[in-house]
């Protein structure tokens, strides 16, 4: 049962975060600002679906973005073609690439679109030049085998493949991976350049990801430079994800402290939780000045299994009631002997009814049936006693069932 209610608590936490991330009422923005906000939401949803290989859902999102003809329209047309190709709709994919060329002749996505066109045409059996897909893959196998022994020979070949518009996106990604695994300073420098955006948007994100897999000081420094200089939310999110893979807690903490964008700041705080960065969460909480930031940190404590910070906040009477209540509710999801004693203590000593309810919810999520039974037996307030019994009535434990029988026999 604890697992079930842990999931419920996490879902509620995520729902709260989602509400916190919602933009202000539309009436506060101009029509253009509303459109830009919607465009970004659709584009991010589309990329998320791509990551999950949900091609139909991604196609739907990018189709909407392309129709809006905003700043993301050219990228949306490229990814629309990409999704169509994955769905086997080759001609539709070629039509989308043609629309990209016609509508956005100066787009930075044209090189990627040209490479995708080669892949699509190859899949249809059409003759493409200069080389076919199979030859490229065989080259990759050969390059991979000699990279460790003779990188000076392999690196220039890979560099040409990445620069060649006829090279398919899939092969480019694999070539970049081979390059990222090399110990050669030149290879690492090339990956760094691509991560800085000196190649193409599609390869930039992949290069950032690959930098995170090797958590060297050099790679972390490059990622930090990219984060501080970029204004693109997607690139910044990619850097934060690379920090997570590279276990760069200091980099994520710096972003959580300094990032002016609320959405990215919350994302950085989430990453700290996933990294079990309890000391960093504690430090961040001490400097937090808004309720939203404090809630985000408390949410991250669940992933970090940080009961210490949650207990201190729950017992701190100088904190606002809503913040203490959130900490109490999250304590149940973390669980533990000390957690239960804290929840019981708050229930007994705090006169606020909402705090008592939150303490009961925490004990309920933690499957603390013995503690709830003891509180129910001692409770003299009829309403509070009823709420305790309601929780116990749905708990699947022997002690709770016996207490229900005890009530019936009175």
Keywords:
410 residues; mainly alpha; Serine Threonine Protein Phosphatase 5, Tetratricopeptide repeat; 24 helices; elongated
Kindly give the count of domains: 4
Number of helical elements:
24
Strand composition percent:
under 5%
**Strand count:** 0
Give me the strand/helix succession. Answer: HHHHHHHHHHHHHHHHHHHHHHHH
Q: In terms of per-residue confidence, which ranges show pLDDT below 50 for 5 or more consecutive residues?
A: 1-31, 128-134
The biggest sheet, with number of strands, parallel, antiparallel or mixed sense and barrel status, is: none
- Global mean pLDDT: 84
The best one-word shape is: elongated
Terminal residue distance: 28 Å
Q: In which range does the helix fraction lie? A: over 70%
Tell me what you see in this structure.
The structure is a single chain. By secondary structure, the chain is mainly α. It has 4 domains: 29-128, Serine Threonine Protein Phosphatase 5, Tetratricopeptide repeat (Alpha Horseshoe); 131-247; 255-305; 306-410, Leucine-rich Repeat Variant. Helix content is 77%, strand content 0%. The protein has helices spanning 2-21, 31-51, 55-68, 73-86, 90-103, 110-123, 133-147, 151-163, 169-181, 185-195, 201-213, 217-229, 233-245, 249-258, 262-274, 278-287, 291-304, 307-315, 321-334, 337-349, 353-365, 369-378, 382-393, 398-408. The chain starts with a helix and ends with a helix.
Q: Topology of this protein?
A:
Blueprint: H1 2-21, H2 31-51, H3 55-68, H4 73-86, H5 90-103, H6 110-123, H7 133-147, H8 151-163, H9 169-181, H10 185-195, H11 201-213, H12 217-229, H13 233-245, H14 249-258, H15 262-274, H16 278-287, H17 291-304, H18 307-315, H19 321-334, H20 337-349, H21 353-365, H22 369-378, H23 382-393, H24 398-408
Helix pairs in contact: 1-17, 1-19, 2-3, 3-4, 4-5, 4-6, 5-6, 7-8, 7-9, 8-9, 9-10, 9-11, 10-11, 11-13, 12-13, 13-15, 14-15, 15-17, 16-17, 17-19, 18-19, 19-21, 20-21, 21-23, 22-23
């Amino acid at each position: 049962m604890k697992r079930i209610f842990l999931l419920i608590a996490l879902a509620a936490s995520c729902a709260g975060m989602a509400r916190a991330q919602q933009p202000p009422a539309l009436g506060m923005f101009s029509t253009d600002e509303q459109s830009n906000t919607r465009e970004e939401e659709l584009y991010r949803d589309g990329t998320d679906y791509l990551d999950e290989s949900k091609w139909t859902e991604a196609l739907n999102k990018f189709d909407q973005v392309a129709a809006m003809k905003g700043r993301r329209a050219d990228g949306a047309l490229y990814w629309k073609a990409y999704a169509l190709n994955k769905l086997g709709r080759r001609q539709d994919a070629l039509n989308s690439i043609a629309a990209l060329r016609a509508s956005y002749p100066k787009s930075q996505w044209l090189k990627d679109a040209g490479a995708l066109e080669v892949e699509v045409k190859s899949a249809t059996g059409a003759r493409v030049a200069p080389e076919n897909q199979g030859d490229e893959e065989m080259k990759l196998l050969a390059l991979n085998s000699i990279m460790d022994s003779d990188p000076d020979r392999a690196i220039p070949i890979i560099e040409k493949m990445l620069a060649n518009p006829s090279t398919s996106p899939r092969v480019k990604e694999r070539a970049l991976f081979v390059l990222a695994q090399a110990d050669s300073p030149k290879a690492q420098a090339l990956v760094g350049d691509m991560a800085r955006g000196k190649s193409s948007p599609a390869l930039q994100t992949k290069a950032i990801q690959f930098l995170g897999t090797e958590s060297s000081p050099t790679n972390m420094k490059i990622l930090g430079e990219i984060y501080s200089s970029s204004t693109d939310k997607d690139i910044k999110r990619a850097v934060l994800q690379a920090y997570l893979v590279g276990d760069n807690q200091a980099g994520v903490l710096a972003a959580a402290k300094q990032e002016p964008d609320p959405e990215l700041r919350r994302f950085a705080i989430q990453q700290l939780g996933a990294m079990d960065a309890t000391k960093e969460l504690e430090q961040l909480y001490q400097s937090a000045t808004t309720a939203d930031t404090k809630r985000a940190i408390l949410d991250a404590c669940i992933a970090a299994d940080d009961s210490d910070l949650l207990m201190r906040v729950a017992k701190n009477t100088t904190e606002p009631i809503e913040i203490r209540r959130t900490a109490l509710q999250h304590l149940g999801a973390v669980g533990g002997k000390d957690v239960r004693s804290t929840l019981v203590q708050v229930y007994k000593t705090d006169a606020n009814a909402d705090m008592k309810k939150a303490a009961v919810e925490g004990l309920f999520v933690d499957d603390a049936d013995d503690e709830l039974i003891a509180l129910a037996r001692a409770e003299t307030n009829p309403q509070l006693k009823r709420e305790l019994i309601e929780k116990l009535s749905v708990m699947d434990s022997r002690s709770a069932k016996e207490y229900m029988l005890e009530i019936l026999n009175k």
